[in-house]
Specification:
With 297 residues, the chain is α/β, with parallel strands linked by helices. The protein contains nine helices and eleven strands.
Length: 297
Amino acid sequence: MNRISTIALLTVALAACCAPLPLFGCPAGGEDDPGTKPKKYVAFSTDKEAYFMPRDFEHFQGEYTRQITEVCQKYNVPFTWLIVVDKEHIEARTSAAKLFPDRRDIDEFSLHVHFKWFIMDDPDDFESFKMVERRMQWLADAKSEIEKGGLPMPRSFRYGGGDSNDSLYYIEDFIFLSDEFGIKNFLFGPDRLNGVIGITRYEHKGDNVWVIDGGREITLLSTCVYLDEDEKTIYSAIDQRLRSADYAIIGSHDYREAVPEHMAMAIEYLNANYNIEYVTIDRIGELVRSREICNDW
């Protein structure tokens, strides 16, 4: 082999060895092939709290639950139902009886919490030292109702009503926390974790995976838009999110009439413009933990 050939081979080998590797185990996507779009993961969810305004308590079901389910079936899309935790556990019971039988092994059934709205007997209760105990008992009661209804035990939850700015730590054994849309709470960033009551030590493993008090891991996930918004806002938020991220969580409220239609439009838009795999929120959390996708936002 002459000298020129040897140098050429060494150059090729060196280039291969020095190719940039993704940080934290994040995949490189489809960048090597200009004709291949990198895979993106999308989870649709709803804050299941339509019982605020049921028209018929006896036959209560989320105002637009059936229509949302029909969209899921039409496009073969899994869904995450974030069941609001209320004192009577109406949502948990109705989800178990009227929704879960048809969507078992497809959808995720997790929790949505509005502590300030329901748990206080008077405004001063929020400052009470009993607040954490009462919240933990409330969650335990909700889980008991879920277990009695045959629903799978939730692994994730989302705050509501401004509760994410509360500095009390009471998320117990949940492992995936989806942020309250538009509000970065005390658990979203190391500069705020110091102010959380109930956490003494924490470690950031990367990709917004945190080890709390040397044991439990919490994965923080971000919602990019709600289907309650208009079409232009939804498309813009999706593009902004997926331009730089591996996943998007798209939320909604199950009592908004526009949600089923907007969900169908969003799916059509995603299918036309991206390489999408539709999953649930807990599946996105699993992909982040296994370092198959990045969680930078």
